[in-house]
Write a structure and sequence with these properties.
alpha/beta; Rossmann fold; DNA-binding; Sig_transdc_resp-reg_C-effctor; CheY-like_superfamily; NreC/VraR/RcsB-like_REC; DNA binding
């Protein structure tokens, strides 16, 4: 059962847009007057704050500069296996929901959701429940049943590297960002192309655009 809003919660809101953070921070503080909301503008800053603090829920955007939301999620969960993370993203495709849940997210909602959905999701995740907004649950169910996305064949790490390659990142840059070796990234890149039947970088980018992973 979700917590009542009267319960004091300590939240970490992670988004790279200051205006967005301010708006949602006010929404959360108005919903729960006893809630304490801290802010981070990047995955790197979120990790530092999380390591130093004691947060009940991390509200995390996936589209972050530098260390992505998915990588941030993985690192938070490695730091604390009981970390409760609610993904709050513009992406509503089933593949993003799948990858976030596989990386350890307890909830996933979109930024187009009604304000009360964010409040309900925070309360549910704080109570240890999984929360998927109704539309996302349906999209995930349809994707899983239909097997529509070729990206479902990728592991969480492969999906992250696929996304970074589609953004135009070089192998050395990806290795530095993810703190893994150049050879590991190169091996993953080969595996990604094999699994997806891609011949070159242009094919990869076209697929990423078609699947909504990156913008055209």
């Amino acid at each position: 059962m979700s917590f009542p809003v009267s319960v004091g919660l300590r939240l970490l809101l992670v988004d790279d847009h200051a205006v967005v953070r301010t708006g949602f921070r006010r929404l959360l503080e108005q919903a729960g007057p006893s809630w304490q909301v801290c802010e981070a503008e990047s995955g790197e800053q979120a990790y530092v704050l999380f390591a130093a603090g004691d947060f009940d829920v991390v509200v995390l955007d996936l589209s972050l500069p530098g260390m992505s939301g998915l990588e941030t999620l993985r690192r938070l969960r490695r730091r604390a296996g009981n970390a409760r993370v609610l993904v709050f993203s513009m992406h509503d495709q089933g593949v993003f929901v799948e990858q976030a849940l596989a990386a350890g997210a307890q909830g996933y909602i979109t930024k187009s959701s009604a304000p009360q959905v964010l409040v309900d999701a925070v309360l549910a995740v704080a109570a240890g429940e999984r929360y998927l907004h109704e539309g996302l649950a349906l999209a995930l169910e349809q994707d899983t049943a239909g097997g529509e996305s070729a990206l479902r064949n990728l592991s969480a790490r492969e999906f992250e590297i696929f996304r970074l390659l589609a953004e135009g990142r070089c192998t050395h840059g990806i290795a530095a960002l993810l703190n893994i070796s150049y050879k590991t990234v190169a091996n993953h890149a080969c595996s990604i192309k094999d699994k997806l039947g891609l011949s070159n970088a242009a094919d990869l980018t076209r697929l990423a655009i078609r699947e909504g992973v990156v913008d055209a």
